[in-house]
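Journal club prep — side note

Before the paper discussion, L.F. wants everyone to see what a predicted structure for a comparable chain looks like in token form. Sequence:
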Amino acid sequence: MSLSDKAVVGVPSRRPVIGVMGAGEASIQSLEAARKLGTLLAQRGWIVLTGGRPEGVMAAASAGAKEVPGSLTLGILPGTAGGTGPDVDVAIFTGMGEARNMINVLTSHVVIACGVEGPGTVSEVALALKAEKPVILLGAGSAARELFGGMRGARLLDAATPDEAVQLMESQLRIRPWT
């Protein structure tokens, strides 16, 4: 699938921030995919942004990133203190509850929805599409594909594996490793 020029991110002028969104109570498949994805993103020098909490996809993606020396993880948290995952390098306490999802989206060059298993992840995908951010649905189930299927366009891509998600970012969104 090709993307219009509007959806191509290209070479960011700052270190790429890749948002990894997913459920706090995620399936084993989503947790494994998030961990591998975090590692792959960090290997390319990209900042891994999550919701910052010590659970689910957030924790798995951050843990995967921290397997790479020199990686940087960023957690956007709903409260004003505490509740930060052990693998989050920079914690941003918003005091905004779930409204922080907009910060997650606007801070990210690309949003990868890992599994799309909860309403928070659905809201992040919707906000990203509204903000015209590229979104990759990673391992999304049939319900998520059906929900977002009518919104298909230049900003929404599907990936079955973390490797495929990264390949899409490099080939179609033109995001290059950061050195």
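L.F.'s comment for the group: Residues 28-43 form the longest helix (16 residues). Keep this in mind when we get to the figures.
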